[in-house]
Design a protein that fits this description.
This protein is α/β, with parallel strands linked by helices. The protein contains nine helices and eight strands. It has an eight-stranded parallel β-barrel with strand order 1-2-3-4-5-6-7-8, surrounded by four helices. α2 links the parallel β2 and β3. α7 runs parallel beside α8. It is globular. 41% of the residues are buried. It binds phosphoenolpyruvate (PEP). Phosphoenolpyruvate (PEP) binds next to β8.
Length: 232
């Protein structure tokens, strides 16, 4: 049975004080019978304090991005080595905002996945189709192709999580139905199993895109969708 994940991508929101306040509130509200992994992805500048803050709680911390190089002349970038040192367990890779605004190609995503594994981080690989791709190629083709590209070319695969996030649903209030999320998750899982084996096929697949309190239950109830990635 795959353990569910509820992850929050805080994007460029929440200063140091807001980060601490939110984490305190979250810790206070965690139910005693919590049966999911809770992951928060604050901004880089608040990662270290957030990781310290949640150290003895069931919450773990993710970075929103990382650079694929170990170190070097990459002004403004952060390497996986730094992230793992400060207590990060996960790292979001290939979020559509990175693909869109920072020209992150499938090759870059693949290199970042390799670098994440090298540093003991679990990549949460974000995949999803734009509205145009949805209309011309259907819902599964692009997320499946992006998943295969991210996982190809590695000698062995480490642990990973896939986040299916249709670009047309991110921050727009338009949400895929749980049935659509299930169909795409199934297609992604089938492709992973066929290309990389049954063990990798048991990796967790999340849905993200305008998930709110009033629609989250439908996704969490699904046997195919292993949790949610929530932004706004
Ligand atoms: C995201 O950015 O990963 C996301 C899912 O955003 P939102 O919940 O705002 O659609």
């Amino acid at each position: 049975m795959r353990h569910k994940i509820v992850a929050g991508n805080w994007k460029m929101h929440k200063n140091a004080e807001e980060t601490e306040d939110f984490l305190n509130e979250l810790i206070d509200q965690l139910p005693d019978d919590l049966n999911a992994e809770i992951i928060v992805a604050p901004t880089f500048v608040n990662l270290a304090s957030a990781a310290d803050h949640v150290e003895f709680t069931p919450i773990t911390v993710a970075a929103q991005n990382m650079h694929q190089a170990e170190s070097g002349a990459y002004t403004g970038e952060i390497s996986g080595a730094f992230l793992s040192k400060l207590g990060c367990k996960f790292v979001l890779i290939g979020h559509s905002e990175r693909r869109q605004y920072h020209s992150e190609s499938d090759e870059v995503v693949q290199a970042k996945v390799a670098a994440a594994w090298k540093h003991g981080l679990v990549p949460i690989i974000c995949v999803g189709e734009t509205l145009e791709e949805l209309e011309t190629q259907g819902q599964s083709a692009v997320p499946v192709a992006q998943t295969i590209a991210a996982l190809s070319g590695h000698e062995t695969l480490g642990e990973f999580v896939i986040a299916y996030e249709p670009v047309w649903a991110i921050g727009t209030g338009k949400v895929a139905t749980p049935q659509e999320a299930e169909e795409v998750s199934k297609a992604i899982r089938k492709a992973i199993t066929e290309n990389f084996g049954a063990e990798s096929g048991q990796s967790r697949i999340l849905y993200g895109g305008s998930v709110k309190a009033n629609n989250v239950a439908g996704f969490l109830a699904s046997g195919e969708v292993d949790g949610v990635l929530v932004g706004g």
